[in-house]
Amino acid sequence: MSSIRSFGEWIRRAETAGTTLAAVITEQESRHAQRPAAAIRADMARNWRVMREAIAAGLASGEKSPSGLVGGDARLCHARLESGKALTGEIAGRAIAYALAVSEVNACMGRIVAFPTAGSCGIMPGAVAAAAETRGYSEDAIVDGLLTAAGAGLIIAENASISGAEAGCQAECGAGGAMAAAAIVQMDGGSPRQIGMAVALALKNALGLVCDPVAGLVEVPCVRRNAFYAVQALVAADMALAGVESAIPVDEVVDTMRRVGVAMPVSLRETSQGGLARTPTGLAIERRLHDKE
Amino acid sequence: MRGLFDIAGPIMVGPSSSHTAGAVRLGAMARVILGERPAAAQIKLHGSFAQTCRGHGTDKALIGGLLGFAPDDERIKSALGLAADHGLKYGFSTVELPDVHPNTALIELTGVSGQTRRVVGASVGGGNILITSIDGYPVRVTGQYHTLITIHEDKPGVIAVVTKRLAEEGVNIAFMQVSRQERGEEALMVIEADEAIPHQALPPIRAVAAMKAVLAVPALGEGV
Prior knowledge:
Number of helices of chain A: 13
Largest sheet of chain B: 6 strands, mixed
Helix content of chain A: 55-70%
Oligomer: heterodimer
Order of helices and strands of chain A: HHHHHEHHHHHHHH
């Protein structure tokens, strides 16, 4: 059987076989990598362990990154959640604190899973762990969720991009948020069609997102952007599970994402030549870090 | 088409898959190509590697790779301090190389036995790498396959001996490149294979009179 090229095809195959998107993509990966499905599930479970370890490490340390630009925000948000004051409530509040924790670990050269990239590594664990802990999903359901997310990322990567340098931050944080939305709908027992809707809804809200790292580092604005997109994943999942339909089909959204990426000026695609990187403060930070060297 | 774990992974030490994880793999690959523990390394950074080296820990990552650490080893963070314990002297400088990828490093290594090797490689995104030159020979080594590299005198029959030996071991050749500086002088061959190069295949290849160096490089993720 040929490789899956679109969400439409992926969803049709699952519906025809009466199975989940996770099962269809695992079968494809099994053929592609010449490895049994159990080994693929075991590798995904290992990813999940590393993600949870990164959440714990980030909440425990509060360490500043070598540049001094980020670090400690996960603890601030977690403390506010613990005190019962978080406006966003239990699940979104955890998603914020966890996404920041993993991104801060990344900035401090700790161990993370680049899912889909290192700069967007907080979104998947933030949103997935917050939903899983609060709702009590089994590890099997979580692995299904991660497999679904990886499949969604694969189709986005093949038809648009997951590289900030190619398509702006919609390709990193935007894709990460859409993938996390897919994971949550899968974990919550949503249908293949609802998973497609969640991806479409999340991606549509990230179109044209600029990638503008200050001083060339994935710290400002990237770390905090991870928290926003972890919550956006929950919003997209809730809408899709409620039965909200994207007016524009998901494959057309992905194609749009590619065209928007191409149309974005190079200065807004991870070159640090535009956006926040070229504000007076952004330039001052760049000079300060250069002088430090 | 990529696989699921190209999207869900790699497990790595942050902050950047291209500037950190890819740099670890470049260092590790250079160590394997040297074929022994490095005692000294002079590393020249080009382009984006040179500009954002410190912030992304590219220097720590390259040294961590040269020490044999994997991309998810948390010792990478303190690799510069650990180098002395591992008997590795190092120096960094910047360089402008013509027509290369923005994330390129030129690594000059001296092994514990005194042999030297010059490796040029790029981090091409998502932790993937491409070795573009070994001792001045242009090559394309991705580390996606099990790789056999030979440096030998440019004489008839050498290639036949090597490929026959691999066939006898049941190793299927996926890609193959041969290059040389001058006719009849030194040549370099890169063989990328579907199967790991078995240890017992190497002595008869090393025994070929025209052979100068034989390097078996495991695929990334399997020792690098």
